Each structure stands twice: as structure tokens, then as C-alpha cells.
Amino acid sequence: MWGTNANCYAYACNCKTPANGVYGAAIPGAFAGDRVTRKQNETDDDYYARLVGGIMLDAAKNDVDNCKVSWNILGLPDAGAGYIIAMIAKKDGFHFFRRDRITRNWTSKDGNGGEVEGRIFSLVTQAYVTPITDAIFRDAIQTNPKNYMGWPGMGFVAYVGLGNINGMTVAG
């Protein structure tokens, strides 16, 4: 079970107890000492690039080798035996998903108090779609996001392959 100290970023990175998780949840770059927050007058693309850079800094601090980034929603990076995480974002927030190494389905956790979810609500069928396969993920995030109730206004940013089977430690 995932506790109340781990948000979506912590869950995606398989970190059940991020440092400062209760106070602000986990933020890319915070474990490495360079917490990424939105700068005044910063473009969306620059902010998103810095968020991905923060993930890479956290990975380096964790000695996670072989991290790979893909900015293409159709191009999953090679994670070796490790995790693939996905980041979606909008100008005032982000959300992370984790892809199971065995089933290849996507799950996420909303906020510190949220539960792990492996489903998304389809407005077309008025029912939950489960599991979230690669095709469903792409459809809900990029192709037909208005057909799903999930993460309004958020678009795909990047996949990051974490070449470590255990994930990594993150912080708030």
C-alpha cells in the first residue's frame, strides 16, 4: 500500500517515503538539491525541460545509470530492467505515471493521499477503461483527451527510462 507521503512523482519513481513528502510532496530535482519550480515569465517548454532535467538530476544523485529521455509519445525509451515513467504537465502543474515492467500497463497516484490507479474514465462509454495500455495512454493524453476524465489541460511532456529495477529516492 502506498502511504500519504508519496505523490505521483514519488510513486512513479517507486519511492514510498520521499524526504519532505508530507510538506509539498515530491518535486523533480529536490532530492538532488535543485527543486524545480515555475519561474516568473518562463515559457511552458522551458519549464517542462527543467522538470525533466530535475528528474535526471535526481537520477544522478541516486547513481541510477543509463537514464534515457524520449520527448516523443510514440517512442518509449529503453529502461533495461528499470522503470519507464511518463510526465504530463500544464503551466501550473504536472502529473507522473509509471509503466509496469511486466504487464506494460500504466498506473499513477494522485497526490499524497490518493490511491494507486490503473484506470481512466471514458466519457464516450461512461465507464472506466482498465488497464491503461500504451494505446489508451496515448489516446487519453494526446489523441483524444476530451474523451476522458483525467488530467484536464495537461499534455505529454516526456518519458524517462530509469535504468534501475528499484526506482529511486525523491524529495519534496
Plain-language structure description:
A hairpin with a 6-residue loop joins strand 3 and strand 4. The chain is globular, with a radius of gyration of 15 Å. The longest helix has 18 residues, at 44-61. With 172 residues, it is of the alpha+beta class. Strands 1-9-2-3-4-5 form a 6-stranded antiparallel beta sheet, sandwiched between helices. A 3-stranded antiparallel beta sheet has the order 7-6-8, with no helix packed on it. The chain contains 3 helices and 9 strands. The protein has one domain (8-162). The two termini are 20 Å apart.
Quick tags:
alpha+beta, 23% strand, single chain, three-stranded antiparallel beta sheet, 172 residues, 19% helix
Q: How do you describe this structure in short?
A:
With 172 residues, this protein is of the alpha+beta class. 19% of the residues lie in helices and 23% in strands. The model has no long low-confidence stretch (mean pLDDT 92).
| Poorly predicted runs of 5 or more residues | none
Structural class: alpha+beta
Output the radius of gyration: 15 Å
Query: Which H/E pattern describes the elements?
Result: HHEEEEEEEHEE
Largest sheet: 6 strands, antiparallel
Overall 3D shape? globular
Total domain modules: 1
Distance between the termini: 20 Å
